Structure formats: C-alpha cells, structure tokens
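All the exercises in this workshop are built on plain-text protein records. Sequence and backbone structure share a record, each on its own labelled line. The structure tokens are whole numbers drawn from a learned vocabulary of backbone shapes. The record below serves as our worked example for the rest of this section.
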Amino acid sequence: MENKTNRNSNVQKKKSYNSYKRSSIRKFSSMISLVILIPVFGLAAIFLLVFPRSDESMIEKRKLTSFPEFTFENYFNGKFTNGINQWYTDTVPFRDDFKNMGNSFKGAFGITTDDTINAVGNLKKVEKNKPKSQTNKTDSSKTENSSAQGSRSENSTAESSKPVEESKPEENSSQKDYTKEDAEYTVENGVIVVKQDGHYRGLELFGGGTGNSYVEALNTLRGKLDNKIKMYSMIAPLASEYYTPANYTDYTANQKEYFDDLASRLDKGITSIDIDSVLAKHVEEPIYCRTDHHWMPLGAYYAAQEFAKTAGVDFKDLSTFKSETISGFVGTMYAFSGGDINIKNDPEDFTYYIPDNYSKCKTDFYNTSFQFDYTGTYFKQVGDPQSNAYLTFFGGDEQIVKIRTNVKNGRKLIVIKDSYGNAEPGYYMNSFEEIYIVDMRYFNLNLVDFINQMKITDVLFTMVTYSAFGGNADNLMTLIEQNPGQTIVDGYNPED
C-alpha cells in the first residue's frame, strides 16, 4: 500500500514538473516572440511613416490614390477617413518592388500543365452564334440628325456599305494557325497567359458587343460632312484573334464576324478597311506584343499600308524606314494577368520604325482644346523605356498632335483613335501633307467644326476591338455634338 502511494506521489510530481516545464517554455517562447516582433512591427511602422510613399505604379500603369482633400462634409460622412485608408494602403513605399517580390515568390511554387486552368473572376464561354446587332442601319447623308436605331431596315443599303475590298488570307501551307493548337496556359481576370514557341504571351479575351455607339456616331458624322471628305473605319483585332489556343477558343469571340457585321451597318461613303485578314497573313511575325495589350509597330505598319492603298496615297516600303529597338520590354500584361511572373521573366524586343523624311517633318503639340503648346519630337522616350516603350509615339494620349510633312499633295488626314492608333501616324508622313491626331477620349472641340475649319480631306477612325464595341465608343457622339459653332484657331506661331 505504501509503495502504491509513493508511486502515485512520484507520478504527481512528474506531471507537475512537466506542466511547469511546458509553462516555462511557453513563457520563454512568448518573450522571444515579443523581442522579435516588437522591433519588426516598430521598424515596419517607421518604414511606412518615414519613407516616401509611392505615387505611381509602373507595373499597373496607373497613378496611385492621392491623399483626400479635407472638407467638413467629407469628414462627417466618412469619405475623408475612408480616403486616407485607401491612400495609405495603395501608396506603400516601394510598392512595385514588394509586388514583384511577392509575384516571384508565388511563381517559384507555381505548377502549370497543359490541362490545368487557374481561373479568377467571372469567366464565361462565348456563344458561337453570329453577332446580333441591336440597331438598324441609317442613312445620315440624307437625314443629318437621324438616329442609328430603328429608322431604316438593315438591308436597305447593305450592299453599298460593305468594304470596298475584302482581302482574304493567302493560302500558305507553312503558315501556323495557333487557334488550332493546344497550349499550356493560365487564366486570371479574363486574361490568359499562354506558352507558344518557347515564349509566354498575355491575351485579352473578347466576349462580343453590338458596336451600336460606333455605328451611330460614324453615320451621324458622315451626314454632317461634305461628300468630298473621305471617311474610313479601320478596327484592329485583339491579339486573341490569332493566338488563342484551341483548348480555350470557346472563351473568346471571332472578331472578324463582328467587324463584318459592323461594316454592313455603316452608311454609304464610309469605307471599311479589313485589316483582320491582312494581319492573319503575318501571325508568325512579331505583329503583337507578348507582354503588353497593344500591337507591335510592325502590326501597325501592315494596317497603315492597307489604309494607304485604300486611300490612294503614296506609301513607303518598310525597308526605307530606320528601325530602333528597345530591349527588355515588359508592358501591361504583367499587371493585367495578376502579376504572372512568367510574363515579367520573359521580356521582348520593341522595334519601331522612323520614316526617311522624318527630319523634314515637324510635330506640334496642343492641349485638348487645340491651344498650341510646343513643337517637339514624334518619337520620344518617356520614363523607363523598358516599361514605357509604347509611349515612344508622341508620349501619350491626352493631347492633340499635328504633323507637318514635306509632302505637297493637298491631302490632310485626321486620325481619331485610341492608344492602338498611336503606332500608325508615323507611317503616313510620306502620304499626307498634314496629319492631325485626336484621341477619342480626350477632345474638347466640336469634331465637325474642327474637320471643316482645318480643311481635312480624309477622316480615319482607327482603334482596337474593345473601343469600337465597348464604352470608349460612347465618346464619339459627344465629340460630334459638343461645343458647336466655335471658331477654331490654330495657335501655332512659326516664331515660337
């Protein structure tokens, strides 16, 4: 009995010792954690408070949130404090560097296979039926203020509004068709990253659209201009038209079908230019960026060549241009793909082309109300060329650009474009006497008045699929209707 009591006593002592030991270890660990974490949090707080905050993200190609303006109204309704929170979290010092580190860490553990999709966002298969137009065609050359919705039957002028020339891809047995081949890919937010020919390419998917705003605006403008003024519509397809692998084609629409449908609804006197078929002949050439959502200058060259042929103006062969290359370019697709490290680690060459008469041309820059700013260079470096290579063309969108060439043919061109169109006008320096470049999103004058008072002879609408079939097209009618009747004065002073 005594031995049993002693054994129980020893067990109790052992349990008490083990409990004390575990408690001591926990206390010691907590102290170590505090010793480590307090300085870490302190240093992090100092870092966030002392170091300069980021104001622009080169990865995401955007200005970061600015510090909110204080008003009593914003303070009491919570907008001011909420704005501070957004500013604080969006402008972390060295934001892009930390983002790159995080993406590299994730990429180190990423595994992709040919049959694996990493999808984020609302991804839907695209119906493969023909585009369904929601407007009927109008003839604004007869009724200036007619609406493009429901005033006439679709078939009344369908024949006359088709493209003047429908080029078809040449049959080439060696031409690769990427849409019939499977590829390794990942998906995020409607962007797929595919591996083709040993390189990674980011692709934006196209889900369709009506193009109603685009059709209505162009038909209305046609009716307000003299018939002697030529009008052209040239829409550039997204890269997904040619490079989407077969195992993902169900998620993007056939853009050529949408272009043809839109062209059939444009009024007589608007020439549609089919560059979808033209570019299809060159898919194995670098006609689209892999790491950026724009096309390459080479793709823009083939489009410009087709336009010049349609417009009946001189056009120089690419061999007459001087080429310049920016190496190590990584564009917007790194951000658009959610920071896919494969895009960042697979940069590309960005080659642009300078015409042989460039030294004889002058490039004038104006604000969006056509107030003269300065005469500068068409091809310029903006910021870091390895991330801003596409800004090589006159530096950005929020301005009006005028090119005065040494051509004396009386032809004056206005290019109404989105950022895709930036790569084109340089190719027209041997084709037109004057070239005006206007962004569809940034123009404060009346477009009809501007065309008439600048004595424009040729009007080119050139933009990517998303702009023609998306929200950007809503701006076009605004350009036509805003601020009518103004006298527009070119503020350029040769003595400046």
